[in-house]
Amino acid sequence: MRVSDDRYTRDRARLDLGLRLIRHEARTCTIRLWTGLSDDRIRKLYRSYVKDDDGRAVLRHRGRSPRRIAFFFRNAEVHFQAVQLASLFLMYELLGSGPRGIEGRYRVGSLEAGTMLCLAFEGYQELHSPALISFEHAWFLLAALARRVELGVARCESCGGMLLEDLLARRRVACEDCMPSWSGVRARHAPVAQGI
Ligand SMILES: [Zn+2]
């Protein structure tokens, strides 16, 4: 009996996470990746959610997932919000500090990690109105920081505040407080980043 109870609990957790991801307007491929649910079950879940909760429109995104890190550097406000989101990924232990800097600490497809990703995103949404970063971009940010090929976390060379760094651009790294006339990436510090 124990085994089937566990299986039921697991299945329930899978559906709960799927629903949570639908609410965050995640793409079907993202929901499949994190929950292991089939496209058909995701469709049914989506339909039942829309039927139960017609007060709020949930968009279904189609097409390609975000893949350009330039999005996080388009202006100071987006960069500021992305730094806060990165700090929340650290707080929820989706990222951690390793010998070579920030590294990924999650397994794709783990229900626990998927739930942490939702919690981090929900925390971010509570901090910002309007929140400029969609769930898909948040997930892209986490994956890009874990990959450490294009995007990294850096310190402002002047004051030590946390920033995102475009690893391929090799620009100087500074926040807007320290380099107000800088024409490159300008960013404000994220308060939650202090001490990380
Ligand atoms: Zn600074």
Structure notes:
- With 196 residues, the protein is mainly alpha-helical.
- The protein folds into two domains: 2-52, no CATH class; 69-193, no CATH class.
- The protein is built from six helices and four strands.
- The strands form two sheets. A two-stranded antiparallel ribbon has the order 1-2. Strands 3-4 form a two-stranded antiparallel ribbon.
- It starts with a helix and ends in a 30-residue tail after the last strand.
- Residues 181-196 have low confidence and may be disordered.
- Bound molecules: zinc ion.
- Zinc ion binds at residues 156, 158-159, 161, 174-175, 177-178.
Secondary-structure map with pairings?
Blueprint: H1 2-23, H2 28-35, H3 39-52, H4 76-91, E1 95-98, E2 101-104, H5 111-127, H6 135-147, E3 151-155, E4 162-166
Antiparallel strand pairs: 1-2, 3-4
The structure holds zinc ion (ZN).
The site of zinc ion has 8 residues, from loops.
- Oligomeric category: single chain
How much β-strand is present in the residues? 5-15%
Would you tell me the overall average pLDDT? Answer: 85
Number of helices: 6
Taken together, the total number of domains comes to 2
